[in-house]
Write a structure and sequence with these properties.
Blueprint (H helix, E strand, L loop, with lengths): L1 H17 L3 E6 L3 E3 L3 E11 L5 E2 L11 E6 L3 E6 L2 E15 L3 E5 L3 E4 L2 E4 L3 E6 L22 H40 L7 H15 L7 H20 L8 H7 L7 H19 L6 H21 L13
Parallel strand pairs: 2-11
Antiparallel strand pairs: 1-3, 3-7, 4-9, 5-7, 6-7, 8-11, 9-10
């Protein structure tokens, strides 16, 4: 019987789709037992360019006896690969019933533009569960309490144990990471070893050269900064007060130090030129200004080579 029935259904479908628009409702089984589920397929066939399809409202029940368990929603697809203009909208309803009997599923009404189409009514048979009356009925047994074993307890609580173990691992790992970062921060925050005095002063000269003060017209500011560096170096290297003395007083005081005469003359030349700029408002030629920083470098390097190195303390080079 399956072959002829299938052929008839295919012929009916072909006839319906050929005359689209058309609608159809089909149960995957006409007989179920109480509580079992059955699928109702709803289909609407139409062609491209047709008006919008208006579906009927479907709630939680189709009738008082037939309930809707699940609604797949409407899905649109091509109905026939050989006919690209033919479309179909499908919707699958999962139904169930809790009372035995023959229950009618009423027609579903659709609107396609000005047309109203209805599906054919369906009949669902709901049967009771067969009971073997030849066997004696037995009372429901009382609840039997069992003593849980350690294995049962572990099987029931293993997620908590794994979570606790993971939490301890995270806490331990986090503490180790914090400690490592703290040690690294202490190492990073440790001050670098101080530079030798002559290197610190050379660095200040490099910074002054990058400022390009005299090239921007600030000739006096250039010479003031240069003499501050030189006087600070002399005061720290030779322990001779140099910041508040005049150039002549400083040169005279340096005669009784270990500073060689050649370096005293280098220093005096640089300081006298700066005094003329600061007090006599002299405007040196660009070549003279250009030579001041190389001259200061040469003085510091020559004196550092001639004098015994002195550790950097809390002297003016830190300014």
């Amino acid at each position: 019987m399956r072959g002829p029935v299938t052929a008839l259904l295919l012929l009916a479908l072909h006839g319906a789709t050929a005359q689209a628009p058309a609608v159809r409702a089909l149960l995957d089984s006409g007989t179920v037992r109480i509580g079992e589920q059955v699928v109702l397929d709803l289909e609407v066939f139409y062609r491209t360019g047709a008006p919008e399809v208006a579906w009927p409202t479907i709630g939680d029940t189709l009738t008082r006896q037939v309930e809707v368990v699940r609604d797949s929603g409407v899905d649109t697809a091509g109905a026939d690969p050989a006919d690209p203009t033919l479309l179909v909208q499908r919707r699958h309803l999962t139904l169930t019933a809790w009372d035995s009997g023959y229950w009618a599923i009423p027609p579903f009404r659709f609107r396609i533009g000005a047309d109203t189409l209805e599906t054919a009514p369906l009949l669902l048979e709901v049967r009771t569960v067969a009971v073997d009356t030849t066997q004696a009925f037995r009372d429901i047994k009382d609840i039997y309490e069992t003593r849980p074993s350690l294995l049962d307890w572990l099987e029931e609580h293993w997620p908590w144990l794994v979570g606790l173990w993971a939490a301890f691992g995270l806490i331990g790992g986090g503490a180790a990471l914090v400690q490592r970062l703290r040690r690294k921060r202490v190492q990073d925050e440790a001050p670098p070893p101080p530079l030798p005095l002559h290197e610190a002063m050379l660095a200040r000269l490099d910074q002054l050269e990058r400022q390009r003060l005299w090239q921007q017209g600030e000739v006096k500011a250039h010479h003031i900064a240069l003499t501050d560096i030189l006087r600070g170096y002399v005061e720290a290297r030779l322990e001779v007060p140099a910041m508040e003395r005049t150039t002549d007083e400083l040169v005279q005081a340096l005669r009784v130090t270990a500073l060689p005469a050649a370096q005293r003359e280098q220093l005096a030349s640089l300081l006298h030129l700066a005094d003329l700029v600061k007090f006599a408002k002299l405007n040196p030629a660009p070549a003279e200004n250009e030579a001041t920083i190389p001259g200061a470098r040469r003085f510091i390097l020559d004196s550092a080579a001639a004098l015994v190195p002195t550790p950097v303390g809390t002297h003016e080079e830190a300014r």
